[in-house]
Amino acid sequence: MLTSVKIRNYKSIESVPLDLGRINVLIGENGAGKSNILEAIALAGAASAGKLNNEFLASRGIRVADPQLMRPAFADGTENTPIEVDLVDGSGTSYELELNNDNAPYSQWQCSFNGGSGNWIDFDKFGPALLAERAKNESIKNDLSIFINTLDSIIELNSLEETTHNDNANKTHRIDIGGDLPVFFEFLKKEAPKFTKISDHIGGFIIYSPENTSLRLFERDGQVEPLGINGEGLFKLLSVIFDGDDLQAIDSIRRGLRLFGWFKNFDVPKETSHGRRGIQVHDRFVEATNRILDQKSVNEGFLFLLFYGALFSSKLTPRFFAIDNVDASLNPKLCQHMVNYLGKLAKENGKQVIMTTHNPAVLDGLNLDDDDQRLFVVSRATSGRTKVRRIEKPRTVDGAPPVRLSEAFLRGALGGLPKGF
């Protein structure tokens, strides 16, 4: 899990640090920069996966614009400024990504990387056993050269030294990579924790914005699997979950759907009476009529909660992702209980999420006594630059009832509300 993100030079963001929990909720007025924060992380995720073409960026939920418009415009000359995203994971390993674009027509973003490890280093492929067996093979020699050159950008191999300890003294000697592969790989073994793949953290980061039409058209698949940004691929993912008898995920999804008072049961049978596969939803109020609802007849809110349940429960979905406007199409009271439910699912399934919302009820689903759940207000400084402030749990005066976060938000005590009216 990532513990911090720092973004520099992206749209309205000049420099914004964010200390993350497992569940992170961003509030703020329209245009404050909430989506810009999500997009900068998604851009870093695309870079770690080596997929920086515009079509792939759009499929991650990034609003792709001309390269110079994706940099800040607070001073002259910033249209060529690199976008920078620094990340720190739970082990303390830091990753620094710098993205550049020459602003030429059809030009693609390029990423340089420092710290940790990039997706392009494959330790399974370049393991000691494989190289020991095939060290004389010409293709392996070429691969090794590429591998070492890549490592050179992370650790200074030209001056690589190893310190050995014994009872008499500490001895330092140079490792001859070309002539002493076994020693070199012994060094890599010891340094392996520093080479955690950054793509394992953010390679699958997507900004989800589910839409009613995409959720109802179960036949449509997204460009990104298993779930597209608008909910494409939901039915296929549900089919995989049910066909694989993933009982934990099935139970988690059903548990969330019980937030609807009318809900009785949900299933994805392998075959249906009319030969076309779909979901089956049982409404307890019409049980006597033996009517079964499908994806076209259930209400919109049900489909949204079904999507979130699958997203947070499946082992196939990203470990770290975002949801823009998580309150869309949902009753305020349902939003409160849904956020509480998603917080439990995230912890159970090792997920980390950043959510944006304009609905005060979402805040009441957070438990700010739990450091894994965090609330941030995003706003613009007088200069126009985006800034972020973490909101702690409101303190209460002795004898006074606790103030609900939704009430504090609407009163303006938290910030993040329009000031023009």
TrEMBL record:
GO terms for biological process: DNA synthesis involved in DNA repair; double-strand break repair. It comes from the Bacteria. InterPro entries: ATPase_AAA_core, P-loop_NTPase, RecF-like. Signal peptide: none annotated. Transmembrane segments: none annotated. Pfam families: AAA_21 (PF13304). Residues 23-364 form the ATPase AAA-type core domain. One of its GO terms (molecular function) is ATP binding. This is Chromosome segregation protein SMC. The lineage of its organism: Bacteria, Pseudomonadati, Pseudomonadota, Alphaproteobacteria, Rhodospirillales.
